[in-house]
């Protein structure tokens, strides 16, 4: 009788674990019912980034930075990663600015807030 009881507890524990892992999954933007959104829309996020972004260079520079980050269930940003950037520490600077971001409205799947992987391209151009 003890062996059966133990097996039932083990199965119950594993199903709870699977559910917990699923709830912490990170979805791609194509997999969610409602996309995450910055307050005022993506144009406001670009304005926010532009107002905070600084590159320490006396030379002209331009380039594209592609980053990924996770928009958490509470709207905060985490798990920052630079996919590509140009010189002058541009990828690190983008991540520094993203860490200052106010919370977003999170993505939703089946009516519930979920974690969502967001890819963000940023074109930078500075002249004399």
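-> sequence recovered:
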């Amino acid at each position: 009788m003890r062996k059966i009881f133990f097996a039932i507890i083990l199965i119950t524990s594993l199903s709870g674990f699977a559910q917990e892992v699923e709830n912490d999954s990170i979805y791609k933007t194509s997999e969610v019912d409602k996309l995450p959104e910055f307050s005022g829309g993506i144009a406001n996020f670009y304005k926010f980034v532009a107002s905070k972004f600084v590159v320490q260079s006396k030379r002209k520079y331009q380039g594209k930075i592609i980053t990924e980050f996770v928009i958490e269930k509470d709207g905060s940003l985490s798990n920052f990663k630079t996919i590509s950037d140009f010189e002058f520490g541009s990828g690190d600077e983008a991540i520094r600015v993203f860490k200052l971001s106010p919370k977003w409205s999170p993505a939703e799947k089946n009516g519930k807030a979920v974690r969502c992987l967001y890819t963000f391209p940023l074109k930078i151009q500075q002249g004399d």
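Residues 2-23 form the longest helix (22 residues).
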